[in-house]
Structures are given as structure tokens and as C-alpha cells.
Amino acid sequence: MKKLVYLCSVYSYPYDDTVTPQVKEKRFRLAAKAVGCITDKGEYNVFSSVVYIHPVSKYYKTRIDSILWMDQCDQMLELADEVWILENEDWQKAKGVQREISLAKVFGKKIKMVTPRGRVFKFIEGI
Fold first, then answer.
1. What percent of the chain clears pLDDT 90, i.e. is strictly above it?
2. Banded pLDDT at 127 (limits 50, 70, 90)
3. Given a cut of 50, is residue 108 above it in pLDDT?
4. Helix residue ranges per DSSP H, the chain
5. For domain 3-122, which CATH number applies: 3.40.50.10400, 3.40.50.300, 1.10.10.10, 2.40.110.10?
6. Are 94 and 100 in contact (CB under 8 A)?
7. Stretch 25-41: mean pLDDT, rounded?
8. Higher pLDDT, 54 or 39
9. What are phi and psi of 113, to 5 degrees?
10. CB atoms inside a 10 Å sphere around CB 68
């Protein structure tokens, strides 16, 4: 069975009016591209909360940062074999990504970084 990767990526940071629907769409597409590239290699199954939640929010108006979504994401992260962080703007500042990294550590998950094109490299604390 393939390993399950939970992909962390920025979506709504910096949590103000500068995060327009166009910014969220761009971040969604970046995450979707990474999911496709990783999955296409055939070694992993990938779950991305951004890729999952963004389309749902287009058809059902709900708060993306609600407890409901966090609970689902936490459960998927717990089930994952590894947690990968998508290298994109502001991943180090985004509260959601930092929360997922902290949770991954609590669950004892291997943490890696990944580029939008699917190149994987070592996660270095504090970079």
C-alpha cells in the first residue's frame, strides 16, 4: 500500500482583505499542481486540505477556518504517514501551516518540504 502524505500549504494568510478570492484561487491551483505532480509519480497518495476545501467552499458557503474543517484536517493529518510542507510564499508565517507542523510533531510524523513541481527535500526547522 502507498504511503499517505498530508500536504500543508498556505491558503488564507495574512487573514485580512489582501487575501482576495484571486489569491485563494492561485494558492489552490499551486497546491493542486503539487498534488498532481506527487501523485503522478505513483509512490504516494496525497491529501491536501486546500485542494479539498477550496472547491467545496465555492458550492457551499462556509467559513474555511471553522472548527469543522480543522477537525477534518486534524483527522487526516493523524492518519497520514508523512506530512509535507508546500514551499510557497509565507508558509513560515501562516498560522494554519504552523499549526499543522506542530500537530505533525505531536503525532510523530516525518516532515518534509516539497516544491510545487513535486521535488521533495528535507525539512529544516527554523528556515
1. 46
2. very low
3. yes
4. 21-40, 49-59, 67-79, 95-106
5. 3.40.50.10400
6. no
7. 91
8. 39
9. -105, 155
10. 11
Read off the amino acid at residue 63: R
Q: Can you read off the three cell numbers belonging to residue 86? A: 508546500
Strand order across the beta sheet in which 110-114 lies:
44-48, 3-8, 82-86, 110-114, 120-122
Q: Is the pTM of this model over 0.85?
A: yes
| pLDDT tier for residue 112 given thresholds of 50, 70 and 90 | very high
- DSSP count for the chain of H helices, then E strands: 4, 5
C-alpha cell at 23: 489569491
Q: What are residue 81's DSSP bridge partners?
A: none
Non-local (6+) Cβ contacts of 115 within 8 A are: 34, 86, 87, 121
